[in-house]
Amino acid sequence: MNVGPGVRRRRRALELTLAEVARRAGVSVPFLSQVENGRSRPSMSSLQRIADALDTTAVEILAAAQEPRPVDVVRAADGAATADGTRPLVRGPQRLHALEFTGDHDWDREYRHRGDELLYVADGAAEVEADGVRYRLERGDTLYCAAELPHRWRPLEPGTRVLVVGTTAP
């Protein structure tokens, strides 16, 4: 999936230079240029840093890279996970975003964005912090939070699988 055009559109809409976005994201200017030109695919963590620098989310950048579909089925074989264990469950620029995370997750990064978010622990256990309060979730547990609140999560066991479903405000 080529996220480059969406990154470039967002950067230009904010009237930012490549150098400014690269500095904010902690990536090199040549790397960011390659991303924008479709010659390099950033890891999910790099994409999240770029999204932060552009005051948006990685999910919104990924969604913008796809065509809208009024009905879409994502088969397990079609939605292969990225190298860092993230698998999109909804494609296209929708107001609902769903991702499946398997493996490690960046606890150091807090998320805040418009909309709502639901976390469901499909396997294993996870620790979630929402608005400064920590919760331990086991297999089958869910946590909802207004996404404007600072929130983050991490797996507590190997093989933990977490589904994150979020909405964005219109």
From TrEMBL:
Record-annotated membrane-spanning stretches: none
HTH cro/C1-type domain mapped to chain residues: 7-61
Gene Ontology CC: one annotated term: cytosol
SMART domains (alphabetical): HTH_XRE
One Pfam family this sequence matches: HTH_3
Database matches in InterPro entries: Cro/C1-type_HTH, Cupin_2, Lambda_DNA-bd_dom_sf, RmlC-like_jellyroll, RmlC_Cupin_sf, TransReg_Diox_bact_type
Gene3D superfamilies listed in its UniProt record: Jelly Rolls, lambda repressor-like DNA-binding domains
Domain of life, per lineage: Bacteria
Keywords noted in UniProt: DNA-binding
Stored SUPFAM superfamilies: lambda repressor-like DNA-binding domains, RmlC-like cupins
One GO MF term: DNA binding
Name by which UniProt lists this protein: XRE family transcriptional regulator
Source organism per UniProt: Streptomyces tabacisoli
Organism phylogeny: Bacteria, Bacillati, Actinomycetota, Actinomycetes, Kitasatosporales
